[in-house]
Amino acid sequence: EGQLSLVPFSPRELTKMLAIELPESTDISVLNKAELSLDFTGSADAVNVSRLNVVLDDSRLTGSLSAENFSQPVVRFDLTLDGIDVDRYLPPPPAVVPAPDPAGTVAESPQLPLELLRKLDVKGEFRAGKLKLANARLTDIVLGVTAKGGTIQLLPLQADLYQGQYRGHVVLDVRKDTPKISANEKISAVQVGPLLKDVLGDDNVSGTVRSEEHTSELQSH
């Protein structure tokens, strides 16, 4: 058991010293500040981290997490992120848009790692105060994850966006060879104009999106 603390440092400068090339990012000022502190206890087959505090640029992640039985891990976590602008870390858009694939070309659908998913034993909750992705802005995000016995649930699954709300419950069932996804979702009072202006740069459409609670299922072959 013990405590670990890293004084603030620049990941960008560190990777430069180690001759590691970072992926290109839209904002070249990111990855210039990081720090870490935590308390831990551990054994040959378990580890528990508490008072976790991770800072990356303008974002701070706090909380706790644990894992037991490393051969088939039992993972628990409780994490809170104050906010992050994901777009800053993504690669810049290409200068030239690639031509579409020739007619008749069919992309292979990715295969789910079914055996790995069936072994998951995970329970925890992740919260984020603010999130920006693809120029869309979300706040008060809550993601609860429960996975055991081949059933993976996202509940609660919620966020506030553009004066409205999203609430959902998603279940992935991989107990059989054909995975099945079911979702129960509701969107209320989301303002379309500001959303489209942020995502597409076009606010010619205005109005409010409301979706009554509904359930849908999808089977993946």
Helix-and-strand structural type? mainly beta
**Multimeric status of the protein:** single chain
Q: Tell me the β content.
A: over 45%
Largest beta-sheet details: 12 strands, mixed
Average of the residue pLDDT scores: 90
Order of helices and strands: EHEEEEEHEEEEEHE
Helix content: under 10%
**Low-confidence runs of at least 5 consecutive residues:** none
Radius of gyration: 21 Å
Number of strands: 12
Outline: globular
How many DSSP H or I helices?
3
First-to-last CA distance: 46 Å
Task: Please describe what this structure looks like.
It is a single chain. This protein is mainly beta and 221 residues long. The chain is built from three helices and twelve strands, in the order βαβββββαβββββαβ. Strands 1, 2, 3, 4, 5, 6, 7, 8, 9, 10, 11 and 12 form a twelve-stranded mixed sheet that branches. The longest helix is centred in the last third of the chain and has 9 residues, at 192-200. It starts with a strand and ends with a strand. 5% of the residues are buried. The model has no long low-confidence stretch (mean pLDDT 90).
Characterize this entry briefly.
With 221 residues, this protein is mainly beta. It has helices spanning 11-17, 114-119, 192-200; strands at residues 2-9, 34-43, 46-56, 59-68, 74-81, 84-85, 121-133, 136-148, 151-161, 164-173, 180-191, 208-219. Strands 1, 2, 3, 4, 5, 6, 7, 8, 9, 10, 11 and 12 form a twelve-stranded mixed β-sheet that branches.
